[in-house]
Design goal:
- By secondary structure, the chain is an alpha+beta fold.
- It has one domain: Catalase HpII,  Chain A, domain 1.
- The protein has seven helices and ten strands.
- Strands 1, 2, 3, 4, 5, 6, 7, 8, 9 and 10 form a ten-stranded antiparallel beta sheet that branches.
- Helix 1 crosses helix 4 and helix 2 packs across helix 7.
- The two termini are about 35 Å apart.
Length: about 350
């Protein structure tokens, strides 16, 4: 594999790390969505979509017409150009067709649509592939390599730890520190946080799917994978996010005016015994990585009226040839995304008109 990593960054001091963790509760709450079980009609001991979306609003405020997670974003459009490498592993048409049109959305992991672009070190990229046979593949990816915790219940506790203190209006650093002390599974995520810095561009980020899925061949053979996209361009050595609140969308528009932007879609094949149902656990050691093709972005649109506005990027909308693993976060994300959509669909904000209808 080619090493696409950025130059090493100096680690944060202990004080800086604690300060970052104090604010990251709300950030993590929207990295991959709020979580609950699929149908939302479970017994009282289990989490429900409403509970988690309510918690997002507590942490981020209510912003009518906007998504409750990843509220600040920009629409993009282009196509996926497949290679031959994934075709033997999956019968999905997206890997056999020469080109598949796509609609995507870059966003910040915050429920606040007015958050400064430099306020968090994470960027997200959601994509909808529209296959010629009428099927769709939707995926949401983030620039972090793993999720902090592996269950919806632990995530909810993390969300509560990051809630603002009524006396100060800000999260209490002690609560977040206590949460992580009680959840050693978050160690890989915390190691990443120590060196993470906000990138200067959406176009230079690597985005990871984090959860495991299965590729299913024409013969019915299943291969567990995690996927991600790697950019063809990167930040210059030492480059950091500029000052200002809204540089990411402006940078993207300028870059696209000069030509398309490209990412390689990598499928990392799981080794025997790999953890498939816990997104907090990294896959270590050598792995076979397929170059499944290239995502090509050709244009952008403001999210207020762009084609991505009404899309619910539900990670369980999958074509024949790709199947979900039993990772509980996947089903949970699906339910909470729907709950969030239903809230914003009936609202109007100064920047948004209410979505006309959800696209399937």
């Amino acid at each position: 594999m080619v090493d696409h990593s950025s130059p090493p960054r100096p680690p944060l001091s202990t004080a800086s790390l604690i300060a970052r963790l104090a604010g990251i509760g709300a950030v993590v709450a929207v990295m991959a969505g709020a979580f609950a079980y699929v149908n939302g009609s479970l017994d009282p001991q289990r989490l429900r979509p409403k509970t988690l979306v309510d918690a997002l609003e507590t942490n981020n405020g209510v912003h009518p017409g906007f998504r409750r997670n990843h509220a600040k974003g920009v629409c993009v459009a282009g196509y996926f150009e497949s290679s031959a490498e994934a075709r033997v592993y999956s019968r999905a048409e997206v890997f056999s067709a020469a080109r598949t049109p796509l609609i995507g959305r870059f966003a910040l992991p915050s429920g606040n649509p007015y958050a400064p672009d430099s306020s968090v070190p994470i960027r997200s990229f959601a994509v909808q592939f529209s296959l010629a046979n009428g099927q769709q593949w939707r995926t949401g990816m983030n620039s972090m390599p793993v999720f902090p915790v592996g269950t919806p219940e632990a995530f909810y506790q993390m969300l509560k730890a990051g809630a603002p203190d009524p006396a100060t209006g800000k999260p209490n650093p002690a609560n977040m520190s206590a949460f992580f002390a009680a959840h050693p599974e978050a160690a890989p995520f915390l190691a990443w946080v120590k060196t993470a810095r906000p990138s200067a561009s959406y176009a230079t980020e690597t985005y990871n799917g984090i959860n495991a899925f299965y590729l299913v061949s024409a013969e019915g053979k299943r291969q567990a994978v995690r996927w991600g996209v790697v950019p063809q361009i990167q930040d210059a050595a030492g480059e950091t996010a500029p000052a200002g609140a809204d540089f990411l969308e402006k940078d993207l528009v300028q870059r696209l005016a000069s030509g398309p932007l490209r990412w390689q879609l990598n499928m990392t094949l799981a080794n025997p015994g790999e953890p498939l149902e816990d997104a907090s656990k990294p896959w270590s050691g050598e792995h076979k990585v397929l170059n499944a093709g290239t995502l090509v972005l050709q244009s952008s649109q403001p999210q207020a009226d762009g084609d991505c506005r009404d899309i619910n990027f539900d990670p369980l909308i999958l074509p024949s040839g790709i199947e979900a693993s039993n990772d509980p976060l996947l089903a949970a994300r699906s339910a909470a995304y729907a709950s969030s959509y239903l809230r914003r669909a009936g609202e109007v904000s100064p920047l948004h008109t209410a979505p006309a209808e959800s696209k399937p």
